[in-house]
Amino acid sequence: MGGDNRSARVSLGEYIMQSETDVLVVGGGVTGTAIARELSRYRLDVVLVEKSPDVCTGTSKSNTALIHAGFNADPDKQKGRLNVRGNELYHERIQHELDVPIEWRGALVVATDESERPKLEELLEKGQRNDVDGLEILEREALLEKEPHLTDDAVAALWAPTAGIVNPFELTVGFANNAVENGASVELEAEVTDITKTDDGFTVETAKGEIDAEIVINAAGLYADEVSKMVGVDDFEITPRRGEYYLYDKQFDIDIDTTIFPVPTEVTKGIVVTPTDEGNLLIGPNAQEIDDKRDKATTRQGLDKVLNGAQKTVPDLTKKDVIKEFAGLRPAIKETGDFRIQIEEEVPGFINAAGIQSPGLASAPATAELVVDLVEELRGDLEEDPAFDPNYSGPPKVRHMSHEERAGLIEEDARYGQIICRCETVTEGEIRDAINQPVPAQTVNAIKRRVRPGAGRCQGGFCGPRVIEILSEELDIPMTEVKLEEEGSELLTDEIKQPLLEKSHESSEVNADD
Amino acid sequence: MTESRQAVTSDVDAMRREEHDLVVVGGGPAGLGAAQAAYDEGVDDIVILERDFELGGILQQCVHPGFGLEYFEEELTGPEYAQEFIENVAERGVDIRLDTMVLEVTHDRTVYAVNDEDGVTEIDAEKVILAMGCRERTRDALDIPGSRPAGIFTAGTAQRLINMEGKLPGEKAVILGSGDVGLIMARHMHLEGAEVEAVLEIMPYTGGITRNVVQCLEDFDIPLRTQQTITEIHGNDRVEGVTVQEVDDDFEPIPGTEYEIECDTVLLSVGLIPENELSVDAGVELHSVTGGPIVDETRETNVEDIYACGNVLHVHDVVDWVTEESMIAGRSAARSLQDRVETRKEPIEIESTAKLRYVVPDRISTIDPDREEIPLYMRVHAPMEDVFVTLSSGGEELTRTFERRAEPGEMVTLNVDSDTLAELPEPRLELDVVQREEA
Amino acid sequence: MTETVSITCIRCPIGCDIELEVEDGEILSLEGADCIQGEEYAREEFRNPTRVLPTTVRVTGGVLPYVPVKTAEPIPKGKLEAAVEELATVEVEAPVELGDVIVENICDTGVAIVATRDLPAAEEGPVAAD
C-alpha cells in the first residue's frame, strides 16, 4: 500500500510539517476527508489539517448515520442535489471501494393518522421529481409485516428502498486512510490559527507550523465561519444545532429492520428510529440551537423528547437496554438553511464547503466531486494519477467472522487471538492495527471509532484499562498521558503513591523549616 | 492491513477440537469453587476458561479485608481468599486456560474459546458451568444527562486501575452510590491522596454495610448524602463538576434543590448486572428480577447440562455465599455426570410473596440421597426488623428462620431439610416474611 | 467536664448508635447498645480505635506493578495516613509470596506489613510502573 505514514503518525517533537502544498483541506470530518481522497485521484499535492488528535471528532461522529434516499431533498438547494447524487455514488462506487459497513435497509416515513396521508403523497411526488428509485406507498398491512414493532396507529408509509445506513466513523477514517495511501497527508493536532492571502495563494498558520497552499478548502464544520473570516469572507455564520440520541444494546428484543421516520411537520422532522450497521438501535435527534460550539451535553428535556418522539412510531421503546446517550452538533447556516460550497469570488483560491448539516453524510461523495470541479475551475484540468487505488480495507473484524475463519486468522497472526473488549469481541491485533493505520488512532475514542472496544454495553469498564495500556505502549507515552479525545482529556491523573510522596516531601520541608 | 481479507481464507483444520467432562466458564470465585467441588466429587476431566491473565476474578482487585468470615471463619482480603482456591484447583490438576475468552456456548454444549496460543478451540462438553460473574451499571444505563468528558469511571474499573495497574483515575472525586464498592473506593481514593468530596445515595439508606460506612467514610470525614443523586455531569474534556439534586420518595429530583460540586472524577457504584450474553445465546432463560438464569436447586438452567453459579446467576453481597453456591453447582454437575441423582417426576415449585424480591432456586427437581439440606437464597424488598421468614406448603408451615434485621443488601438463607421434602402436601413451597408480633 | 461521644457499632448489621458520656477520657456511662458485644465494641472504639490497613506496595519485575498488602494486625486509626505515606516509599522485588513481610514495623506500631497474594516475576522482563 502506498503513502507515507510517517507524516500522520508523528505529531509532535522533531517532526515538521511540509511547508507547501497545492491544496490544503481544513477539517477532517467526513466532508474534508472525502474531498482529500477525491483530490488524491489526481497529480496534486494534498494536505489535510485537523485540529483534533483524530479525524471524525465533530459533526461526523455524532449523527444518525444515514444515507438518505433524497425524497425529502429540495431540488432547488445545493443540499438537495448533492444528497441525491451522493446516494448514487455510495451505491455505484463507495460501497465497492471502501471496506466500510453500508447497508441498504430502506426507509419508511410512517403516517400515524389519515390526516398525514397527503404529506406522504407530497413526499412521493418530490422524491420522484428527484429521480429517487423505487418509491412507493405501503398500506398498513404490508407495513406491519415489514416492521411488526410499529405502532398500531400506523396507517400507511412511504417506502424508500434506496435509503441506507453507514458507519460514519469507519467511513471518515476510510476516506482519510485511502487519501493517505494515495499520497495525501493528514496532519492531526494542526489547528488553523490564521490564513494570509499571498500573491500565489495562501500562507496558513497551524499549530504544527506554517504551510503555503495554492488553494485552501474550508471544510471546518462548526468552525467553518471562523476559518472563512480569516480570509475576510464573513457574510455567514455557523449556528450549532444540537441533536440528542439514545443507543440501545445489540441484544435487544425490539427488532427494527429499516430506518423509520414519522411524517415531518412544519415544526419538526421528528425522531428517527434506525438500526445501526452493528445491529444496535439508535433513536434521535431532537434539534436545539445553542451558543457554544463545544457543548455536546445531553439534557433531561432533550432526551425525554427523543424517547417520546421515538415512541410515536415504535411505542414499545423504553429506557431499558439503553447503553449510551450522546449529542451531536449540526453546523447550520441559519439564513439559507443550505450548504455553501463555492469558490469565494472575492478571495480566488478559497473554496468554502460550509454549512454542511444533514444530509451532509449522504452528500459527502457528491460534495467531494463538486469540490474537485471547483478546483478544476481554479487550476484548469487536473491530471489523473495512474497509481491511484480507490480500494481500501481496514483491520479484520474478528467479531464478524465464523469460528473457522477466526482460527485461520489467528494461526497467521496470534494477536487476533487475544480478546480485549468482550462486549464487542475486539482483539489486541485490531487495536494495534488501528494505532498503526495511515491515519493513526492516538486516543481511546479514536480506537473506539475504528475498531469498537468500549462501544458495547459495559462502555469500556473492562477493556478501558487495557486499551490505555496498549496505547501507552504503541505511542511510547506514559499511561497518564493517554487521552480520551482532545487535549485535556487525559484519563488517569497520576501514578498511585505519587501524591503521597509529594505530600510527605512537603511536610518534611515544613519540618525542616521549623 | 489490506492483507486481512486474504488472511481470513479459512482453513477449517486450524480449529482445535477437544472433548471434556466439565467446562467451567470463568475462573473467579464461582468458577474456582465449582471446579474444586466437581473434582472432589470424582470428576477429573475439568477445564476452566478464564479471560484474564490469572485466576481469582474480581477478588484480585478487592485488596480490602472482609472476605471469608463464613467459609474460612477468619477475615481475609480478596486476594487471600482467591489464592486459597487457586491453590486448590492447581493441586487437583484442573486444566486452566488463561487469557482465554469464550466466544460461544451452544445449546448442545459445544464451547468455542479463543486465545493467542491455541487459536480457536471447539470443546464438546458433557457439562458446562457458567460462572462469568457480572458487570457494573454504567452512567449510560443510569441515564445521567450532561457532557461525556474523561473522568467518569465505574467504581470497579477505578478499583482495578488503582489496586492492580497502580494508576489514579483522578484527584477530586464524587462517588455516586453507597454500596460497598463505592464506600471502599472512597477510602482507597482518600488514602492514595485524592480528595473525596461526597458519596451520594439515591435511597434513604446506604447500600453498604455499617462497618464500611464507619471505616471508609466516617474515619476520614467523607460526607454521605442520602436521597441525593447526580442530575448532570459538566466538563468538555475532563469532568469539571456535577449537579446534585435531592430526590423525592419516587426518586424524582426535587426542583430547587440543585447544587454543584466541583470535581474531576465521578465514580459510579450503582449496581451490578449479571453478564449473561453467552447464556442467552445458548438458549438459557433469564429471571426478570435477578437478570440471571432460572435454575433448579442443583443450579441447572432450563438448558439441560448447563449450570450457572455466582454473580452470573444473581448478584451476591458476600463471596462466601458465591463459594457455597458454586460448590452446589460443581457437586451437582459431577453427581449428575455419574448418574447419582434422580429426577423428580414433578418438580417442586418455589414461590414467594411480594415481600421478597427473589428466591434462588426457582424449583427443586432432583432427589439426591446424600443431600441433607437445600439452602434457599432470597432477598427482601425493603429493610425490615424482627421478622420471620417462613416456608410452607399447602398452607402448612414447614420451617422458619428469624431475622433481627433483614435488608435488601444482605441475602437471607433458609435451609430446607431433605426429609421435609419427602412428604409435601403439594409440589409447591411458599416463602413469606412475617413480623414477629403477627407470628 | 463531661461530653457525649456517639459511636455506631459495626459488630452486626443492626448498627446500634451508642452514646457514651465521658469525662477526662473516662467512660462514665454508655447507652444504646442492644447487646454486650456492642458495649465492648464502643468501649474499645472509644479508648483505642484500631483498623486493619489494606493497601498496595510498588513491585519491580512482577506480573503486576503493585502487590496488595495489609497490616498483620489492626493499627491505631490515627496512624493510617502516616502508614500509607511510609509505604509509598517502599519498593519490593518480585517474586513476592503471600504472607511475606514487606515492612517489619510500620510507623513504630510494632505491626508488620504483609503481602496478601503471590506475585510471580514477569516472564518477559519487568513490568515497569511508569
TrEMBL record, chain C:
Signal sequence annotation: none
Pfam name, any one: DUF1667
Family annotation (InterPro entries): CPE0013-like_sf (IPR036593), DUF1667 (IPR012460)
Domain of life: Archaea
Protein name: DUF1667 domain-containing protein
Organism (species): Halapricum hydrolyticum
